[in-house]
């Protein structure tokens, strides 16, 4: 069972469904939409070619989530 948590921005309750889908979230759906999303996702290609080779062989992409700063709703 997932315990409801308060939103870091407005203080409202984050729905258990959202916490189940995104366990590391700190904001509710409405605040996330207003902020333009809670995270910025950066995709970086991974090189699999030998060091010094002129061929650019990429094996895949690694992704990194960067949390955007969360300001309380009353200060905006």
From TrEMBL:
Q: Which residues form the Zinc finger DksA/TraR C4-type domain?
A: 7-31
Keyword vocabulary terms for this entry: Metal-binding, Zinc, Zinc-finger
Is Zinc one of the keywords UniProt gives this record? yes
Keyword Zinc recorded: yes
Query: What domain of life does the UniProt record list for this protein's source?
Result: Bacteria
UniProt cross-references to Pfam families, sorted A to Z? zf-dskA_traR
Disordered: region residues = 53-76
InterPro entries associated with the record: Znf_DskA_TraR
Instruction: Point out which parts of the chain are dksA C4-type zinc fingers, as ranges.
Output: 7-31
**Basic residues: which segments have biased composition?**
65-76
- Membrane-traversing stretches: none
Protein name per UniProt: TraR/DksA C4-type zinc finger protein
**Which organism is this protein's natural source?**
Gemmata palustris
């Amino acid at each position: 069972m997932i315990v409801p948590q308060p939103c870091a921005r407005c203080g409202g309750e984050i729905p258990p469904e959202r916490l189940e889908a995104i366990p590391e979230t700190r904001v509710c759906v409405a605040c996330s939409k207003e902020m333009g999303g809670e995270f910025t996702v950066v995709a970086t290609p991974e090189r699999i070619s030998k060091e010094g080779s002129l061929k650019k062989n990429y094996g895949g992409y690694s992704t990194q989530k960067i949390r955007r700063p969360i300001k309380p709703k009353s200060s905006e």
